[in-house]
Amino acid sequence: MNVVDDELWSAVGDPTRRRMLDLLLSAGGTATTLSQQLPVTRQAVAKHLGVLDRVGLVHVTPSGRERLYEVDQAQLARAVAQLSSVGAAWDARLDRIKRIAERVQRSREG
User: Fold this and answer.
1) CA dist., res. 27 & res. 9, Å (int)
2) The listed CATH number (3.30.990.10, 2.40.160.10, 1.10.10.10, 1.20.120.610) that belongs to domain 3-109
3) What is the pTM of this model?
4) Which stretches does DSSP call E strand in 25-84?
5) Radius of gyration of the chain, Cα coordinates, nearest whole angstrom
6) 20, 48 contact by CB (below 8 A)
């Protein structure tokens, strides 16, 4: 995994940013509209949007005095694919650990 991937994971690891992505997926929005739907200040929303923009999860378009944010579907799909891949790898590791633990248990019982 490279630094960009680490930053992407960090960005989607924050629950507020995941909620923001959910909101943006349904309608797009500005920092102001998002702050009205979240329990954080507009300034905090703007900082979170900056993180999402930096890792390419959102596109920004000027809209009057505001900036309109929309989710980058391709980058989001990339993040989901990476999460799925890591989840599958951990499932396989945990399955191996379980089999080892079961063998140890059987050898103690036998």
Assistant:
1) 23
2) 1.10.10.10
3) 0.74
4) 58-63, 66-71
5) 20
6) yes
